[in-house]
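SEVERITY: medium
COMPONENT: batch folding queue
REPORTER: lab tech (J.R.)

DESCRIPTION
The queue accepted two submissions in a row. Attaching both inputs and their returned structure tokens so the on-call engineer can compare them side by side.

ATTACHMENT 1
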Amino acid sequence: MSKSFSKSGLSIPSIGLGTWELRGRKCRRVVRKALEVGYRHIDTAAMYENESEVGSGIVDSSVDRNEVFLTTKIDTTKVKNEGIVEAFNQSLSDLKTDYVDLLLIHWPTFSTNLGDMLEIMYGIKENQKAKAIGVSNFNTTLLNECARLGFEDIYCNQVEYHPFLSQEILFKKMSEMDVIPVAYCPICRGDVAKDSAIIELSEKYNKTPAQVTLRWVIQQQSVAIPKSAKKRRLKENIDIYDFEIDDQDMTRIHSLARDQR
């Protein structure tokens, strides 16, 4: 299993650090630590109110900016279309960088319409301030709408995904459209460690429940962005490339879905 997935010449590491709810000095420290233990993909958002600390963490690390895949998101619940460019420039300033690798529409909330919003986002890409444009929390109807509007090259769709929440229909649509799935809350805030089936599989594969779950996610050609603040866990979450879950066990994990968000 490759450590990254590629689309349109741009590779995204299959495991990234989610930074939701990480704030202040702790956030800065965790980002630096993550990069030092081998992460090369950091996910943030204007809505998280931590872009400045994420940027500082990247600067503090000994890793070059061009080696880090950095994602941020426009807070579409607050920013109207005419304010997108200004909001994005503020994000760049806070992140202490002159570009991001991936820029997402955070929530499907549109002040006018989706077409206008995507037009503005792709303008940012054309100005080489973002290498790719994607979406977050979009359902199949909205993905179809992107295609209908002529935006065929949506890079990814970031959605909640873990063993207790089936996204089968949405994943099928993303596969058809060649949109990379990015799973947030992939270990369901640690709930996977309490599930007897996953515990059993963790013993079988000699890995932790989180490692089994993250491996299950990436074997579906999906990126995972777990959040952790502990160095041991950070290391653990990227140590998933030396084993493979067999088809029967993949199906068993799929069967745990219970529409839990």
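ATTACHMENT 2
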Amino acid sequence: DHEATKLLLLFGFVKIEDNGVVIANRIFETRLYNDILTSEEMKSTPISKAGAFDKPEFIKNGILDVELILTKFITHFHEIYSDKPDKFIEEDGRKCFLIYLRPIINGVGNYYIETHTRDHRRMDIVIDYLGKRYIIELKIWHGKKYNEDGEQQLSDYLDFYGLKTGYLLTFNFNESKEIGIKTVKFDDKTLIEAIV
């Protein structure tokens, strides 16, 4: 009965799947995300302004420094959102990160949500920037085993794309967490893991 949803269904931007509303395809998904992320409301958020301000630091010799992006994102996330309640779902983390990322790659690169891995519990972001591809797996911390499963998933996605380096961004709301970046060797891959 939601008017906006009815219009989206009418024009085929969304569809009903498993008793829920999902975006109909990757093109519509990217367009809808871009529409939301480039709205004046989103561009005026502190996290978007931080991404725009930091942008010059992230490109070195035409290569996107994703590790530095994650490092700066962690810093800004804690400065801006550390006093917010822990009622945080993965969609909020996705939106926060994409709001930060959008002004950094805007005009030169793009991102999309990989359709092979979309399942409402996790998501992968694929960034294309000047002909190079970067895979970022987003997770919410649910323990060490869940994190190891995320590393295996990321390794599998890297195999799918023929890449050797990937990125894991985990939102952890435990009191005793250690925020920061670490490098993990996983089989023949290098995983850059960021804990927010």
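NOTES FROM REPORTER
The radius of gyration is 17 Å.
No errors were logged for either attachment.
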